[in-house]
Design the sequence.
């Protein structure tokens, strides 16, 4: 059990789990819009997420050298370097339009991590901003980028998917903020810090409900199965919201909650739903 726990901890700490979620969301976006045979964007998102998240999490340690680098962190640094090379390889496969978009979202990651102005904090520490930067970045990488690469016109359906994806990510981040409410710096002004845990949960329920309502505004042929499928997804996240509290273990959000997009993707593949409009 100790070995399995160490493997699981490394899997989470190295950002492989969240990267697999990004891969799943990109693949589902492509599936919903009938994009076939193009895995470059999905792999770019996977390796880019490993690099981006590890950069955000471990940049301060690497730059300031505050603590002795442990063996696990050395392996994570090596994995991040390999992922950077793989990310660059798949980046070269993208069109110029996609490359420019990828640079824009990479810029958001840098803004989130590094202080660009003297004596100023990075965007991660700006009051109430973190959740919006995370949401916009995930929408860009998992919706805009794959559809731009596939030359899908930016119709109302694309905008609806982008907004639904933002609501989905926003709701998931709310769970993280509730679990971390005791550990987050009070100056971050996360949603639970500003309005309390109870109101944060109600906000999450409202956003998930809005996500489902937007499903009926797609211009393509609407079917009952897509709505029922998304109802299950939103219901699962609502359950995580309901049981979220500051005493939950790190696995509650970092593993189980982030498994929802992966599970959704696997169910989609196994059931073979067709003609779905997607989150």
Sequence:
């Amino acid at each position: 059990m100790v070995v399995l726990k160490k493997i699981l901890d490394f899997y989470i700490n190295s950002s492989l789990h969240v990267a697999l979620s990004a891969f799943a969301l990109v693949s589902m976006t492509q599936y919903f819009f009938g994009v076939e045979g193009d895995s470059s964007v999905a792999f770019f998102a996977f390796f880019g997420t490993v690099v981006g998240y590890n950069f955000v999490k471990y940049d301060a340690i690497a730059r300031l050298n505050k603590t002795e680098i442990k063996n696990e962190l050395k392996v994570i640094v090596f994995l991040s370097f390999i992922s950077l090379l793989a990310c660059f390889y798949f980046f070269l496969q993208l069109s110029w339009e996609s490359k420019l978009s990828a640079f824009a979202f990479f810029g958001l990651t840098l803004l989130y991590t590094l202080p660009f102005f003297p004596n100023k904090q990075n965007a991660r520490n700006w009051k109430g901003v973190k959740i919006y930067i995370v949401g916009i970045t995930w929408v860009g990488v998992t919706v805009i980028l794959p559809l731009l690469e596939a030359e899908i016109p930016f119709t109302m359906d694309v905008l609806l998917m982008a907004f639904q994806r933002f609501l989905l990510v926003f709701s998931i981040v709310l769970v993280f903020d509730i679990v971390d409410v005791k550990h987050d710096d009070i100056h971050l002004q996360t949603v639970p810090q500003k309005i309390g845990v109870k109101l944060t949960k109600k906000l999450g329920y409202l956003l998930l409900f809005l996500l489902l309502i937007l499903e009926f505004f797609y211009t393509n042929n609407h079917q009952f199965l897509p709505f029922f499928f998304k109802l299950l997804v939103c219901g699962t996240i609502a359950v995580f919201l309901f049981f979220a509290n500051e005493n939950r273990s790190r696995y509650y959000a970092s593993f189980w909650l982030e498994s929802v997009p992966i599970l959704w993707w696997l169910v989609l593949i196994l059931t073979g739903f067709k003609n779905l409009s997607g989150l």
The chain has twelve helices and no strands. The chain has a mean pLDDT of 84. Residues 1-271 form one domain.
